[in-house]
Amino acid sequence: MGNFTFQDLKNIKRTELGNMVPLELFRAIRLIGMNEGLPLGGKNTTAAIGRKIGESLPAQTVEELFELFIQLKIGIPVIVQQDDHTMRIAVEDCFCEGLPVQEGKFVCDMEGAIMEGALKRIMNRNVFIKEVKCNVNGDEHCEYELRLFH
Fold first, then answer.
1. Phi, psi at residue 116, to the nearest 5°?
2. DSSP character for 11?
3. Which candidate, 23, 144, 8, 9, places its Cα nearest to that of 95?
4. pLDDT averaged per 10 residues, the chain (length 150)
5. Which of 26, 121, 128, 143 is a plausible cystine mate for 133, CB 3.0–4.6 Å?
6. Radius of gyration (Cα) for the chain, nearest Å?
7. DSSP for residue 5
8. Burial class (CB in 10 A: 0-12, 13-18, 19+), 41
């Protein structure tokens, strides 16, 4: 069985239900199925999945990646700090917006891993990403700290 490309996934022929699923279903897959159903809250799995998705995205620049995040309704990313070795990216309107606050809980690691996989390919550098703020933790938005290595 072959691999699917991102372009393959755009071929949607659902005549009745169209190309959208409710956010509740995505949240159920992520927060109940993966976060609660897998060992260690699914962190290794979501990181691996996110990196693979990021690598497959048809973005050639950071701007194109951010535009894809918006088109795919992942969130609205904005660089809030950047230098040669680090970058901080805030994501507004993330999928977790509106969930009950659970202090100490960060649930958007897969979204960060998507960025990590894409940026590694786009920048041709090693990238390590960590979620440092999350709406679920009670923060004003989700935010990621990226470390860039040559």
1. -60, -50
2. -
3. 23
4. 83 92 93 88 89 95 97 97 96 96 95 97 96 98 95
5. 143
6. 15
7. P
8. middle
